[in-house]
Amino acid sequence: MSDLRIQYNEEMVGRGHPTKADTLNRLFLAGGMRSPEGKNHWAVFKKQTGDPPTAADELALYAKEEGGELALYARPALGGPAWRLI
Predict the structure, then answer these.
(1) Is the separation of the CB atoms in 1 and 23 below 8 Å?
(2) Number of domains the chain contains
(3) How far apart are the two ends of the chain, measured CA to CA in Å?
(4) What count of other Cβ atoms lies within 10 Å of the Cβ of residue 78?
């Protein structure tokens, strides 16, 4: 699959599902994110102590410790509930 983005006909599945491929984290697992110019971009997330605020046109990706391990979280616009990604 050359396009690693989630397709409209795929079921959203994250890390640890016993029978389905990880679609949610596929871009990160494949070796980085690509810019519109086709260049790889890496992101490093420092551990946060709380959930960051978000405006109406923002999505926050951040690292937070949970159960003794560092996990990647996403928080949608206007401070909605955060989702653990990996």
Answers:
(1) no
(2) 2
(3) 22
(4) 11
Q: Are 12 and 24 in contact (CB under 8 A)?
A: yes
> pLDDT tens for residues 15-27?
778 888 887 777 6
**Do 15 and 34 lie in a common domain?**
yes
**pLDDT, averaged across the chain:** 78
For residue 43 the two structure tokens come to 């992101």
The DSSP letter of residue 77 is G
Select the more confidently predicted residue: 27 or 36: 27
Nearest of 39, 20, 40 to residue 28 by alpha carbon: 40
> Region 32-60: what's the mean pLDDT?
74
Question: How is residue 3 written in tokens?
Answer: 């396009």
At 61, list the tokens: 């990706």
| Domain containing residue 83 | 44-86
